[in-house]
Amino acid sequence: MTKHRVSATVNGDAVEFLCETQQTLLDVLRDELKFTGTKEGCGTGDCGACSVTVDGRLMCSCLMLGVEAEGKSIQTIEGMASGDSLHPLQQKFLEHAALQCGICTPGMLIAARSLLERKPDPTEEEVRYWLAGNLCRCTGYHKIVEAVLDAAREMRGA
């Protein structure tokens, strides 16, 4: 198999990697670049566990090929905190006990951040709609929605 050299930016850092044509971005992130925070839940884009942003667009990394990352800017869960300081969403997920097994949590956080970047004051309905592509098999969604709304209030200083 031919390997392709790809240059991209991940969490603000320039990276280069080799990947095979059929390797997904998810596989590249986890296996080649060791960003293991991004989880594989289904491999078909149905659960949102592997959510990342690519050039600011929320997407399932299992549905994008690694070779398509050439020149792109990718944000993963590893880039969410600032040093030892958690992002407000991460802190609120902890405070609201909005996680259990943790498989869906990175994707939920990335999706929630993407929402709050676009809409700093979402309604509960908007949060539920935005997170609809992220499935959780362990919790009800109430604590997750409450954590996002609480983080939104904190982030806008309300």
Give an overview of the whole structure.
The structure is a single chain. The protein has 158 residues and is of the alpha+beta class. It folds into two domains: 3-77, Ubiquitin-like (UB roll) (Roll), CATH 3.10.20; 88-155, [2Fe-2S]-binding domain (DNA polymerase, domain 1), CATH 1.10.150. Helix content is 32%, strand content 17%. It has helices spanning 25-32, 88-95, 105-118, 124-130, 142-155, and strands spanning 3-10, 13-20, 51-54, 57-60, 73-75. A five-stranded mixed sheet has the order 2-1-5-3-4, with helices on both faces. A hairpin with a 2-residue loop joins strand 1 (3-10) and strand 2. The protein is globular. The protein starts with a strand and ends with a helix.
Considering the chains and any ligands shown, give keywords for the structure.
5 helices; 17% strand; 158 residues; Ubiquitin-like (UB roll); 5 strands; globular; single chain; 2 domains; 5-stranded mixed sheet; alpha+beta; DNA polymerase, domain 1
Q: Can I get a quick summary?
A:
This protein is 32% helix and 17% strand. The chain has helices at residues 25-32, 88-95, 105-118, 124-130, 142-155; strands spanning 3-10, 13-20, 51-54, 57-60, 73-75.
